[in-house]
Amino acid sequence: MKRRVLTRRENGFVIITTALMLMFVIPIVGLAIDAGFLYAVKARLSAAVDAAALAAARSLALGQTIAEQEGSAQARAAAFFAANYPVGMMNSQSPSINTTIAETGFRTRTVTVTGTVDSPLFFMRMIANAPTTTVAAAGKASRRDVNVILVLDRSGSMNSNGGCTALRNAATSFVDLFANQRDRIGMVTYGVSYAISYAPSMNFKSGSPTLPGVISTITCSGGTGAAQALYKGYEQIININEPGALNVLVFFTDGIPNTVTANFPVNVLDTTRVADGASLSFTRKNSRCYDWQNSRRWYVSTSPGNQDPAWNPNVQVFRGAVYGQNLGISGDGVFGVDDFVTTTFTDPGRVLRPFPNATSTTQYTGGQTGDCWFQGGRGHNGSSQGTGSSHTQYDIAYYPETDLYGTQLRGSGSFVTVNSFPWSHVYANRIDIRTRTNMMNAAINGLDYMGQRIRYNQLNSSIFTAVYVIGLAQAGNNQHLLLRRVANDPLSPIYDPNRLTGMYVYAPTAADLNAAFVKIASEILRISQ
Q1: Angle at CA 112, nearest 5°, toward 111 and 118?
Q2: Is a pLDDT exceeding 90 seen at residue 231?
Q3: In what order do the strands lie in the sheet with 259-265?
Q4: Smallest Cα–Cα separation from 147: which of 239, 260, 15, 213?
Q5: Do 50 and 72 form a contact (C-beta atoms < 8 A)?
Q6: Which of 90, 317, 384, 494 is deepest in the core (most CB within 10 A)?
């Protein structure tokens, strides 16, 4: 086979063809290089406007009026954009943004940040006849307004662990992270009793009084009536009645609950009862209290002239709180639900008590003799019965199955039931009132079941409420488990992924409280965006 040799004419054709192809190849290569550079510019610009929009949405809480909040959001957007896309970055020119804030849904504001820069052209400037081209990107972030009810422990143990002062500071900082006139915040505080310390309001920073101002007056005393307080916090959410809103309870406690508030059945047996192995020479006939159902006072004694034949103990209950360390002999006994409400935290819904005349409706504030009490704890005349003389066991028949708000008390934990004659004949299988273990288990079960009631929207099936819990100081493993259950925390042994997920945060010391509240606030604000 002969090898073919190109002629000089054919060599010239190849050179011409190559030159013609370069006229197309060079612009294509230039377009690819410029396009790649513009893509990099747009990616950086997109990241900058996304960060600006997110920062602006979070800053919508800054300011007491909506106009101030929108001004803060626009300023924050500009600052974040400048930090993430400074002048001269990637040889671009004239970076600028436009920030708009609009209502885009039910109690939802959306921040839109549009950014532009003039990016240089390298190869394509000859074709485009321009040294730069404009690159634009937009970022959006929404901020959903929230309804938050703080449920804060103000029990006496908060004084010994330094928590009372730390709580005031941490709760104040927490409130400052939310938007006045947009978010709605209220507060329930509790010891033995509860108080609606701050009714839910959108003007919690500008109203009179302000929520931070009320927080600063919190003082700590009494027991830990957690289940009752959590119910009242949940009730505030239900009363707001916004099914489409983000509803949140922030529950704080420093220990295991030790108080049960209920309608306690009155003892109908007229006999001496044995408490914790010790016999006391006291019978129900010497007690007196108030007929809550019929709104009149009664008094029964061994003197026929002092008896009230119209009073029927079989249908009578005592509305109060069982609280103490060693119920039966040296415990604190039974108190009315309002006994530990201070003058600062007056609860308008608490039980009214009569003074010496049965028609008075003045609320009890403490210290009055002749006030109508059960014998438990402080005695029928408002004075102490002395060490070893608690008479709860005589006046109260047993623990009811539910507390004052219908929350179940019998559940996990063992209970001692009534088993001694003649009590067992009338109160068989009822939860014995005489043991502290029963009181503690009933209080724990009440809180546990209250968390369940909230998870399953028991008071209103269309209102969903997330629970966030903070435990302080005295928390042990049992409390961690209990509070995770209340929050429906993912680490809870009964976590239900089909219900709203909450969070449990543990603060080992009072110094850790602020960080715990900030963590909870960050999570709430994260899911609101």
Answers
A1: 145
A2: yes
A3: 259-265, 317-323, 334-336
A4: 239
A5: no
A6: 317
pLDDT at 8 over 80: no
* CA 354 – CA 337 distance, rounded (Å): 14
DSSP assignment letter at 200: E
Tokens describing residue 110: 């959306």
- As a whole number of angstroms, the distance between CA 497 and CA 455 comes to 11
Stretch(es) of the chain classified as CATH 3.40.50.410 = 146-257+444-527
- Alpha-carbon dihedral sign for residues 230, 235, 240, 246: positive
- Specify whether the backbone of 379 is left (phi greater than 0), alpha (psi in -120 to 50) or beta: left
Residue 377 CA: distances (Å) to CA of 45, 193, 222, 336, 403: 70, 16, 13, 11, 20
Question: pLDDT per residue over 166-220, tens digit each?
Answer: 999 999 999 999 999 999 999 999 887 788 899 999 999 999 999 999 999 999 8
* Residue 469 to residues 159, 165, 504, Cα–Cα distance (Å): 20, 19, 5
CA dist 67 and 182 (Å) reads 12
Question: Strand ranges (DSSP E) for 165-316?
Answer: 184-190, 194-201, 246-253, 259-265, 274-275, 278-279, 288-291, 296-299
Residues sharing a CB contact under 8 Å with residue 416, sequence separation 6 or more, in sequence order: 431, 432, 434, 435, 437, 438
**Tens-place pLDDT, residues 306-358:** 444 444 556 666 666 777 543 433 333 444 433 333 333 333 333 333 333 33
Q: Which residues contact 398 (CB under 8 A, 6 or more apart)?
A: 265, 418, 427, 430, 431, 432, 433
pLDDT attached to residue 309: 47
The pTM score is: 0.76
Cα 240 to Cα 201, 214, 499, distances in angstroms: 10, 21, 21
In this prediction, residue 474 has a pLDDT band, given cuts at 50, 70 and 90, of: low
Classify each residue of 255-265 as buried b or exposed e, where b means 16 or more C-beta atoms within 10 Å of its C-beta.
Answer: bbbbbbbbbbb
Q: Rounded mean pLDDT of the chain?
A: 76
